[in-house]
Amino acid sequence: MSDIQQPAQTLPPNAPSGPPLPRSTKKEGKPASLWSDAWHDLRRRPIFIVSAILIAVLVVMALWPSLFTAIDPNDPRTCELATARQGPSGGHIFGRDNLGCDVYARSIYGAANSLLIGISTTLATSLIGGMFGLAAGYFGGVTDTLASRLTEIFFAIPSILGALLIAATFRGGPLSSITLVIIALTVLGWPMTYRIMRAAVITAKSQDFVVAAKALGAGHMRIMMRHLLPNALAPVIVIATINLGGFIAAEAALSFLGVGVTSPDISWGLMISDARNRFLDAPLPLIFPAVFLSITVLAFIMLGDAVRDALDPKLR
Amino acid sequence: MGRYIIRRLIQAIPVLLGATLLIFAIVFALPGDPVAALAGEKRTDPTIVAILRERYHLNDPLLLQYWYYISGVIFRGDFGVTFADVPVSQLMAGKFQVTLNLALTALVFEAIIGVGLGLWAALRRGRAADTMILASTLLLISVPTLVTGFVLQLVLGVKVKQWTGVDIFPIAGISNGFRSYLLPGFVLAGISIAYLTRLTRTSLVETLRADYIRTATAKGLSRRRVIGRHGLRNALIPLVTYLGADLGNLMGGAVITETIFNLPGIGNQLFQSVYLREQPVVVGIVTVLVLIYIVANLVVDMMYAVLDPRIRYE
């Protein structure tokens, strides 16, 4: 418990009035940039260390699941219907699910799809939202008005229902179920990044170095890429990290509703959905993937909290 | 104020039209023929199919179909009919009632627990209670509704009934009236409780550092009065607006909770209608949700002016 209590002191609500956090000790003559300052700050935060370790384990789990379990859940021969819902035992530490498959092995193999969908959606929303936000914030005027009205439309649609609708509509088409989930979540998710990016760009735009670059004859592209983007990136990274956990939870929700990842692909949401019918008399096949899911989301949200505290000097 | 409201309402029109058109276009792309779906397993007579397609404008292009639909909604309040020939508005009324009850229960939990915990944390800032509350908000934000729903259903619903013999928290359906909504309402509120706790804490900590709080303390008011009348009242402004805007989020996000607890709400209905390709129901539900979102945000913006006299809208 102390692992969790400790980092909580670094949560943002504490920041305005909390004890002063250790600032980086700059080396002589070399001013620390925001990034090195943030990195220096991050390394000392227990909340960051805990979440980084958890995420590292999850990434290894996603890339080489066979390191964690000798059973390959993609091989149907490892399932025995006769042993369905059997409790934990030596060879099957989490017991077996409704089809007699090993819950532990399936939970381990489920990490890959969750991370794949979470990370791809985050990259896609950051790219699309970031690009539109950069252009809207920089050009202003009609571009800004159009893009902003467009995002208002997406904000007005409840995201989980919108994603459900998109995923359900285009199921069975040429796209794999995983790609479809990424697209559905991206379509509903990018306006958030757009808003953050646009606000950050508008703040950066009026600063002297941008005016100077313009006076020196820099083109639109150069100003946006070389001057605005690096200065507006921090809040986008923060929101991206926090959203990543949310996208993983959303994937589980869609898979649970039957419009996300489909069998034979493995997903925690799908496992929860499969175990649901017998949940009240055999809760374990549902509980274990639920624990994996919660810890993964927790790890990314903790990371997001830590990164925000490190990157947002205003909150210090 | 009046002019401000009118301007906001005019601004809401493109959002409403854009969102409904978007949903309409997606539903338009739903695979399968609605007339074939209407017929179910039976073979369909081509003449009848042709008549039905003509009657429901299914041969017209997307934009024209959209116009028929949206003009019906706007000018006649007509959301179309379901496959069973029930008016969609009638179907939705019952479903929205369930989801509204659920969302309002969640909102009450949110307000009581969120503000309570936030207040407690703010007053014990930096101490054990504060740290504990902040750590639990992090947990609450991280555990998906999917997980809290099933776990609470098992622990508070089933186990409590087994141990005490009394069915305190019904775990499915709405047949127990108000009590049916307690457990799902709490589950739905979960993440919002955590955000509201953090918001209350930040807001109150900020307010308690203001000059007028020092003045109030200096003139000898009791701590209770300083915090209650001067601190909390001012700290309340962002909270009320958060709660107002959250009503729309809760209603739109209730589908998981409704599925877990078998509540016949709009999330559940939308889900079923997507599978049945009941296009008017899908578009109707999303249209009403978008309207709720727009109105809730407008009300929230106006509440700013009511709660904080310094804010004036032109």
UniProtKB/TrEMBL annotation, chain A:
Please give the chief subcellular localization of this protein.
membrane
Identification of the protein by name: Oligopeptide transport system permease protein
Provide GO CC annotations from the record.
plasma membrane
Q: Which SUPFAM superfamilies match?
A: MetI-like (SSF161098)
Pfam families noted in UniProt: BPD_transp_1 (PF00528), OppC_N (PF12911)
> Of which family is this protein a member?
Belongs to the binding-protein-dependent transport system permease family.
Keyword annotations: Cell membrane, Membrane, Transmembrane, Transmembrane helix, Transport
- For bias type Polar residues, the affected ranges are 1-11
Would I find Metal-binding among this entry's keywords? no
Gene Ontology biological-process entries: transmembrane transport
Q: Which InterPro entries did the record assign?
A: BP-dependent_transpt_permease, MetI-like, MetI-like_sf, OppC_N
Organism of this sequence: Nonomuraea endophytica
Feature: compositional bias, Pro residues: 13-22
Question: What is its subcellular localisation?
Answer: Cell membrane
User: Keyword Phosphoprotein, does the record have it?
Assistant: no
**Positions of transmembrane segments:** 47-67, 115-141, 153-172, 178-197, 228-250, 286-307
